[in-house]
Structure formats: C-alpha cells, structure tokens
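Bit of a strange request maybe. I'm writing a small parser for structure token strings and I need a real example to test against, not something I typed by hand. Could someone generate the tokens for this chain?
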Amino acid sequence: MSDQPVVLHVRPDRASDDETGGFPGIVRTAQSDDAALEALAAVSPDYVVCDHAPAAGIDGLALLESVRGAHPDIPVLLCTDDPDGTVAARATRLGVTEYVPRSETDPADRIRALEERAAREPISQTAALEALSELTAAHDRSDEETIARVLELGADRLGLSLGYMSRIEDETYQILQVVGDHPDVEAGLETALSNTYCSRTIETDGVLDINDAPNEGWADHPSYQLTGLACYLGDEIRVNGELYGTLCFADESPRAASFTESQRTFIHLLTQWVSRELERRVRERDLEYLEDIIEAVDDGVYALDDDGNFQFVNEAMTALTGYSEAELLGSHTSLVKPPEVVDEAETIVREMLFGDRPEEETFDLALQRADGEQFPAEDHMTLLWDDDGERITGTAGVVRDITAQKERDQRLSGLLETTRSLMQAETPADVAETVVRRATVPVTVVR
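Reply from user aminoacidic:
Good idea to test on real output. This should exercise your parser:
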C-alpha cells in the first residue's frame, strides 16, 4: 500500500472527490456499480467502501461479488444505514472484509483500523521463512529466547498483536510463553481447556482460524467472553506423537481480511518446527540423564561407529585404559585392543549381523593400557541401529576389569587340584610332596 491510501467510495449521492467523508488518504467516488468497476480499474484503490442501496441504483452485494471475482485481495466494506442480518449474512458468504451498519459504526473509523492492522504485517512469507531458517541455524539463543522469536515471527507474519504457546495436560490449559500485551493472556495463566479456542484447535485437522469471532458464531464462547479476542489462528503441538499444547496468534480487533493460505501454511510450518525443537529438548534431557547414570557406574562404557572408532567413553573407560577422553574419541578401537582381539571382536559383530549370535553378547578379551600393559576384561557388547531400525550404526558396550576375578578363579582352581591330589595320596610322603609342589607354584594371571 502507498503512504496515502486510496479509498473508492461507492455511494448513491453525487459528491466531488474533494469530499473525503472522513476517510484517511485519497478518496475517489462513484455513483453506480458500472462506474465503480470503471474506477476500480482506473485508480487501483487500496480499499472499497460500498453502500448497499438498491433503490438508489447501487446493488452493493452484486458489486462485492464482482470486486471479489476480479480483485480478491482488496479489502471491501459493505455499508447499510441500519443493521440488516440478511445483507450481513450474504455479504459474509461473498467474502466481504467487514459489514458496517452506519448507525452503529463510522466506516471511516474501520478504514483507519484496517490501516493500523496493515502496518502490523511487516514481513512477507519469503522474509518469514528466511528468518525461520536463520533461527534454525542459530545456536546462541536460550530455549526461552528461541520460542519468543518464533512467536514474534508468527505474529509479524499475521499482523497480530499476540503470540503465545500453551501446554495442555488432560483438561488443564496453561500459557507457557507470550509475546505482546493482554491482561488475560499472560505466561503462567492456567484455566480449563474448555475456556479456550484451543479446545477446538486440537479437534481440528490442521490450523483453526477465526477472523471475526462475534460474527462467526463465537460470541458466546468462553474464550471470547473472557478475553475479547476477536481473531485467532492456532495449531496443535505434538511431541513424539503425543499432544503437548498449541501455538497461537490472536488480536482483540476482528481480522480485516481472511487469513490467506500462505499464512496458514506458514503457521503450520512454524508449529511443526516448534514440535521438532521440543522433541530435540526431550532427547537432550534423556541423553543427559543417561550420561549421568553412565558416568556414575564403575565400569567402562563406550560406543563405536560402524568403522570401529570411539564416539563416546565415560570416565571409567579412561581410567581403565589410561587414555584421556580426547585421545580415545575418534580413535580406532585397536588403540586399546591387540590385533588378535580386534579380529575376534569383528568376527563376533559379523556373527551378530548374520544372526549366528544374539545382538547382545558377553565375552572375555584382553585390553591394553596406554603404558602397554595388558589386563583381562569382560565386554558386554550390543549392536546399535539407526532410528528406522534398518541400518547398523555401530556398537556399544560395557567393559569390566576382571583381573581380580581371574586371580580368584585361578586360586580356586589350584585349591581344587590340590584337594584332589591330597585325596589321592596314599602315603605321608605323597602328601608332603603335594603340599611342597603347591606351595612353590606362583599365582599368575593369564593376560
């Protein structure tokens, strides 16, 4: 729109273009339907204000239909002297921007309101998508700042004063975050879900949009009664397939024109982005919780990629091997395993892949510390799959130093052998020989 809006005023009485009728900007007038269509082509108005006066030769409804057919995006106000429900209903079906009974409202005031609304829609679909792309790439924002920016983007794209995100649990509705000011829409507010437009949003397949609540059957709805929000657009947020809440945009003023399909699509895209962002946060919290547990255990825990390179190790794994986390991550498992052990582990993985072994297996192996010393260990290993369960992405395992266990087993084995020999001894000399032999055998651990 230009700095000076152009208003085409179709009225039954003749007037000069200098008589503005209180409308802002430049006013052009026409006194018949045909003259209005000619003026529409000649001056390209920003607004059309048309009186419905059939007796005076102006059929406002017919003109509305013609304007909508040729210029669907131009805001059209249809006026009558007094309220007329039949005219209002037909005008709504034909796509009128606003129906204005002059006895109740000055159409010039409505034009000024539309101008204010237009000024609040500063960004195009392309600009909004570019801003969303920048937000996706940004990693320096807090979670709260990220959601605030999302709400700002949506509100700016729609030209509305409010954007808010809700949490829905059973029949309880809580507003989590808000941009814009409204006394009844504030972060932390809780109410019954039935008191909100969002109760209908979650029942809708796609976004729910309300352009003019009192004139679209929402006048008695609790949300309109409690907040006075006359226009609304919202979509449901789902996290891992479960209902989380809603992303909503609203204003106390009725919508000047119906939400466009591109605007609806953008808000749906924005809501899907928020859903994925919340899913990411859930995964990060789960991973942090899992890492806390892993770091708390005494056994070494590791994860390898499908090439056998370390992708994760806990502190216990670094203590077992003598290598730092930085030294292990990205290094091949051969750093801590002798060549024959690497071959054995790879054979086990192949057998798991071909179904010759279960996908989890426990086996003994020798590990090699950073100082070159080897020690016996037990590895409980499992395969790692991608999210679709179709491709192996690596292996993970829990490693335990079993040096003490091996020594204990060897002692028990020696004791059992000595006992057997003593029981088989036939003379005191045999007994003495067995005792001496046992006492001179060192306890060693096969590494």
